Amino acid sequence: MPYLKTLTSFLLLGTCLLAPGCARTRAMNHVDRAALLEAVRQYGKNRQQGQAVSTTTAVERTTQSPSGSDTEEAYKREIMSYFLDKNFAQLDKAARDARTEKERFPGGVWKLYTFYTGLSTPTLGDQATDADWNYHIGVLKEWASARPDSAVARIALAETYISYSDKARGTGYANTVSETGWKLSAERTAEAASILVEAERLTEKCPFWYEAMQQVALGQGWERDQARELFEQAIAFQPDYYHFYREYAYYLLPKWYGEPGDAQKFAEEISNRVGGAEGKFLYFEIASQITCQCDSPESEIETLSWPKIKEGYVALGQLYCYSNLKLNRFAHMAVEAGDKPAAAEAFAKIGDDWDHTVWRSNQRFEQGRKWAMGL
User: Whole-model pTM?
Assistant: First the structure.
């Protein structure tokens, strides 16, 4: 199908030009790796191990906030309003509620994940200046100082330093990053690691601590066995927090520290290991991580099982309902797989609500939709 091949190559090229990183990063180590690994081993030591994956229904697992924040964007605005008001007690409560209630938004995204990622950058986002970042970090430090027992404040601060590290490195290939960019990125990642070690010593524990540490491991270029140990410790602490699986799959991509096929093998391993609808859902999530990358001029969809991706997509809807982002991801994968009926069904649900992070431009979205609809 020549048109499909051309469209797929076009989509991949556009993604590659714009995606963060798109090349193996330099490993820059400014912290004691042994101390970090010891913190990883100690963090969940008193937590019950081997707990079963939750099997509660989509109704029970999706968010219906009494304050009306039943979408990710509305919830982020709510959390940021507490932050700007310096309502630290309410921030701690919001994180604790998200952690204990294990609520998810449609699409399966944990409310806890949205809490921390929503606080990880200044309100101006990509337009934020260093002054904006310094103010944002200053408020987080004020929170940590005002509430010394708050692990949430410290994890939020560490996650912000990780985002600030990404800003220093930029969004281009590794050979486009300046020496100053590498230096600032390494320093900020090391600061995040130090803060996470400090948080480990507190009584309060939170699953996102592991995810932040996974991001540190990626930035510092941890060895494969170390990154795997971190992942295993994380899922022992909270096995149904699917973001851990996506983070490790990302680490395994060839652009980082894996070899071709490693992430695909991991998807198979985890899907079989977890089993059931949750295992199928995890296969879909890891596949969407693999196929959105730009390391090859050929589509990565051919290295995965398209039937299993479709099964995972069905499981997603059954477990957590669909979000617009996940609909767009599936439509993109269906285009790459050459499955017109599946793509057409997804595009019909999407309508005109295309997602920029998936398609990069309305032109690419329209090309995919016209192909699927036979227009």
Answer: 0.86
